[in-house]
Amino acid sequence: MVDYSKFYYDQIKSQVININKQYPEDEISTSFLRLCCSTILDLEYEDVDDDITDEGEDLGADAVHFAIDEDKTRFKIFVIQTKFNSKKCDNGIFNVNMGEEVVNKFKNVFDYFASSDTGDNVSDKVKYKKEEYQSLLQEGYILDEIYFVSCHLGIGLADNSLEIWNRWYNMNPYKEKIRLEQYGLVDIFKRLEESRVSKIDEKISLNGKYFEFSNPDVKGLISSIKGEELIRLYGKYGNKLFQKNIRFSLGENIINSKIIKSASEAETRDKFWFLNNGITVVCDNYERTGTQPENIMLEVKSFSIVNGVQTTTSIEKAFKKTGNIDDVKILIKIFKAPDKLAELITESTNSQNPVNKRDLRSNDDVQKLIENMLKDNGYFYQRKRNQWIEISQKDKIIDNYDFAQRYLTFYLERPMDAQKQKSLVFTDDDTYKKIFNPNLSPESMIFIHKSYKELLKQLRVVRRKLRMKQIRLSKEEISIIPRVKIHLFYAFRVYLEKKGFNILSDSDLSENALKEFNQENTVLLLNIIVEAIKKVYGSKPLEYVNVFKKKELAQKIREVIEKMQINKEASSKS
Fold this sequence. Notes:
- By secondary structure, this protein is an alpha/beta fold.
- It is built from 25 helices and 16 strands.
- Strand 1 and strand 2 form a beta hairpin.
């Protein structure tokens, strides 16, 4: 059998090199970390900055990410380790497996988060993550799961490592919340390949009898599909199967755990058809390839599962768990429908797992209008999760959730709401309409997008120079860096006004305004934010994970900047 490891590695390395060109201040291993976090957690490359913990005394965590569901006040933790042995791989030597040190590092991170240890021998980055974790618990958020994710260029964990993990896992009182996930060379390559598929035309085998109904606008067919056939499709296309859905996989929540259980256990596998709502497919067209009354084959054009993401991914997990889903059959409904009706089918059939407001608004007319408007300007507007997963130009993707948060900060001057109530932009009608309306210009959207990316770039430069001892900051300034970006973006807005830029004029928010997002001003505004924080909290000892929770902080930032002496040079806008 041909070993394609070198081919897989070359493809992954090419992606890593491209990322490193975008972030030249990164070590190559950090660029690999960005790639892994982007493909596994659906993060933008620059958003990984807040999660990177890789430094001395980090307990073995390269990144720690909190996936927060504000609607349900619940969250998940992802602890990520990556290993990029580029020199060995260049010579065709790939890791056969990962050693027990990986497991020990994960255990160390968990023990630190679960204990009352103050972290005297732990890096500030990991310490800040623990503070963030404790802050979420204090606010009433419930921890759903903690994922330990290992990304490497090999096959998997060694047998003795898995034994160590299983012993620790089985003795852990919180084991129901703990998950171990591995992404080796083939897994990461497969994720990258999924992103290259744009349209699915596929032959699918149905099982048993079928029923067909049609009217002038739509035709539909109801039948059953075997679990193995559904897994084949998911194995071939991954998340691209769900491109017309209003969301993608929600992970292993309570509902999905029950789906996995019913597909895994021998006494319920043959009853799965009765226990599950099945899947719904929309397409441009379908045709039967024969005249037989059952077990038919369909040729489907532009195939997309619009309800059944959780069923599909859960069956795949059940197969990995047991290796046997022979008796699993799933109800399938296939509709050939025009776009408007397909969208209505998508929305009305998504009830097995709750749909959040952002999902429901993804097909609003104004969202589609903005998408077309930005497309004409060379940008991809992401109105639903993972919509543009196949696009390699990540810097050209403007996500509506992220954009709304930044608009709320920059134009509506509500940085605290943007930081602590991000979902407000979709749950509050008044806020939603103030942001998303037909008068929203592509110029203002692109400026928000580019300037925020430039801000994140300058924060990375500051972090790197701090690490290399090329600049000095106060302890307070260093302490706020991990969570300052939203208020720093607001501070830049006020600073631009002070410099004489007209915030409401698209022509004024040009390349000249973008030049103000530089290292010098970033350091200046960090100092200003610390001064404003002290005006809000007085002489009280500060817990820097909580300093951005007061609404009056924005006003204090404005007061400090407005009192500054700033040279309003004409050249700054020429």
